[in-house]
Design brief:
249 residues; alpha/beta; binds zinc ion
């Protein structure tokens, strides 16, 4: 059992020391905002491992980890929260265990279930923002529908080999993900995935989230950030929403 040390939203003296090197970035106000924020990470695989490490390091106050899979040997090249000894364990539990040790000053909840039509509203309804750490479009579009309806920030992230992309969605400010992307997207099974690409894309996704949350920097909401590791180019692409989508009302 882990006792939560998050008694108050005020930063404790030890938290002020822990976050000393990032207070110049966020200020006390921004750091407190991070502490007050709850984020669900959907998927505790490659993207999820890095997103969780970054969120926990930043001091995001409550993190919900959702994944119905168990750890396999072929995950260990990039899913850095899962180790040899975790093979066979539910990924949500394995990831939560490491994240609680990494930052004991935040709340971590593990939900060892797949996100489905029947649990999506309940899970997404409890958090301020959702981070995509998935490998399939079907579940991404489910998150997009529910997050848009419940007015929660949704950061899409995906990778393929040396490439990846991020799209920050803010209901009421941007179009939804479904109308920014082509309608029939399919996910190939067992696509290529390496840790460095996953870490970079997870980093971009978390930076875009914290910019929206704290107001620092220039947000790319509604745009697609494309990273190509083969050339080291990063592009920001303006997306045109499909007319008559449900998000335009
Ligand atoms: Zn839309």
């Amino acid at each position: 059992m882990t006792l939560s040390r998050r008694h108050t939203n005020k930063l404790s003296p030890i938290e002020l020391v822990r976050y000393d090197r990032q207070l110049p970035v966020f200020g006390i106000e921004g750091q407190t905002k991070l502490k007050e924020t709850s984020v669900a990470v959907i998927g505790a695989g490659g993207l999820g491992s890095f997103e969780l490490l970054y969120l926990a390091g930043l001091g995001v106050g409550k993190i919900v980890i959702v994944d119905g899979d168990t750890v396999e040997e072929s995950n260990l090249n990039r899913q850095v929260l899962h180790w040899e000894e975790d093979i066979g364990k539910p990924k949500a539990l394995s990831a939560a265990e490491k994240i609680r040790r990494f930052n004991p000053y935040i709340e971590v909840e593990a939900i060892p279930e797949k996100l489905t039509e029947s649990n999506a509203e309940e899970i997404i309804g409890r958090v301020d923002a959702v981070l995509d750490a998935l490998d399939n479009w079907e579940t991404r579009f489910l998150i997009d529908r529910v997050a848009y309806k419940l007015e929660k920030i949704f950061i899409h992230a995906g990778i393929y080999g040396l490439e990846g992309q991020v799209i920050p969605i803010v209901p009421g400010e941007t179009s939804c993900l479904r109308c920014l992307l082509p309608p029939k997207l399919t996910s190939p099974p067992r696509f290529p995935a390496i840790a460095p690409t996953v870490g970079i894309i997870a980093g971009i996704a978390v930076i875009e989230l914290i910019k929206i949350l704290t107001g620092i920097g220039e947000s790319n909401k509604g745009k697609m950030i494309v990273f190509d590791g083969s050339t080291m180019e990063i592009m920001r692409v303006d997306l045109k929403p499909r007319p008559n989508c449900v998000c335009v009302e």
